[in-house]
């Protein structure tokens, strides 16, 4: 039995579908407010609860030999939400997993994560890693680059921002930050292979796609593929944080959040050959993959849906 937390997120949705397609026994811990409109035609076993409910967490891990821990608040939560859901939730996971004798914990972190980081998202991700590594349980930690795909909250949010403003795009800094984007299906494949490879146990691995790309080139690639050319205006990141705070008071949900800016605060790369060396996977290029789903997409409907959708309720 494999327990997946954060199963309704981008990675979780794809991972659970893949696990069930291979005939694996899958159980998901899902909060009550996320039980409507589940993303799977045939739902896996579901335990209603969240990572802060210790009793339900223990029920969920009982009988599971692996926990794939993906629950997070990185795209919508404030710092206190990150602390509650990621730090407290991970501590609850460790306690429940020890009591239930779980074999291994697999989690996805960020390139650049470190407990000493000046940026809240990367600092908290680093603290989560330290908690898991010091738990006494077998673990696999996968630090990945920016994850992109048809439903991601990064590349698609840039495209929605381009659609919202027909004249210009406000770019954090001068666009010199180097990213290492990875396609969602390649990341899911890496997680799947980590289930079978003994050499990934008690290992922290850093992976990304087949190329490095600066933020400016990342944005221009999206412009080219989506046919939405805009004038790029470099803006100091601290000013964008102020603008984001104002948007957050006007609209229920902003396309750009403080956590979004944390990811862009520093270069985030791994060695190019790591994906193949660790998992034997040849990842797909950023632009080649965008062409399959972004070209010709209007983005008006996703923009309206995102702008007026309420923030998720805190767990």
Task: Put the structure in a nutshell.
The chain is 43% helix and 17% strand.
Q: What portion of residues is helical?
A: 40-55%
Could you please say which CATH topology of the largest domain applies here?
Answer: Rossmann fold
Shape category: globular
Q: Which CATH architecture of the largest domain would you pick?
A: 3-Layer(aba) Sandwich
Radius of gyration: 19 Å
Query: How many distinct beta strands?
Result: 13
For the sheet with most strands, the description reads: 7 strands, parallel
**Which homologous superfamily in CATH is the superfamily of the largest domain?**
NAD(P)-binding Rossmann-like Domain
Order of helices and strands: EHEEHEHEHEEHEEEHEEHEHHHHH
Number of helices: 12
Helix/sheet category: alpha/beta
Strand content: 15-25%
Our measurement of the CA-to-CA distance between the termini, rounded to an integer number of angstroms, reads 25 Å
Uncertain runs with pLDDT below 50, 5 residues or more?
none
Overall number of domains = 2
Sequence of strands across the biggest β-sheet: 3-2-1-4-5-6-11
pLDDT average, as an integer? 87
């Amino acid at each position: 039995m494999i327990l997946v937390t954060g199963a309704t997120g981008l990675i979780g949705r794809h991972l659970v579908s893949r696990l069930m397609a291979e005939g694996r026994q899958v159980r998901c811990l899902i909060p009550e407010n996320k039980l409507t409109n589940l993303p799977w035609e045939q739902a896996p076993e579901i335990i209603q609860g969240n990572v802060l409910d210790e009793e339900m967490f223990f029920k969920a891990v009982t009988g599971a030999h692996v926990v794939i821990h993906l629950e997070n608040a990185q795209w919508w939560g404030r710092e206190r939400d990150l602390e509650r859901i990621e730090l407290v939730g991970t501590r609850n996971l460790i306690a429940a997993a020890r009591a239930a004798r779980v074999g291994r914990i697999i989690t996805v972190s960020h390139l650049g994560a470190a407990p000493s980081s000046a940026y809240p998202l990367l600092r908290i991700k680093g603290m989560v890693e330290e908690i898991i590594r010091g738990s006494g349980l077998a673990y696999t930690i996968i630090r990945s680059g920016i994850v992109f795909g048809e439903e991601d909250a990064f590349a698609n949010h840039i495209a929605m921002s381009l659609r919202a403003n027909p004249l210009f795009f406000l770019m954090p800094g001068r666009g010199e930050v180097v990213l290492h984007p990875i396609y969602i299906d390649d990341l899911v494949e890496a997680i799947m292979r980590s289930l079978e490879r003994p050499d990934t146990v008690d290992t922290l691995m850093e992976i990304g796609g087949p190329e490095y790309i600066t933020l400016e080139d990342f944005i221009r690639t999206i412009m080219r593929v989506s046919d939405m050319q805009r004038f790029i205006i470099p803006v100091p990141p601290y000013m964008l944080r102020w603008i984001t705070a104002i948007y957050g008071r006007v609209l229920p949900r902003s396309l750009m959040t403080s956590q979004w800016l944390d990811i862009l605060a520093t270069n985030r790369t791994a060695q190019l050959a790591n994906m193949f060396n660790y998992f034997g996977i040849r990842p797909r290029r950023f632009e080649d993959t965008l062409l399959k789903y972004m070209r010709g997409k209007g983005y008006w409907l996703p923009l309206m849906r995102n702008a007026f959708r309420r923030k998720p309720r805190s767990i």
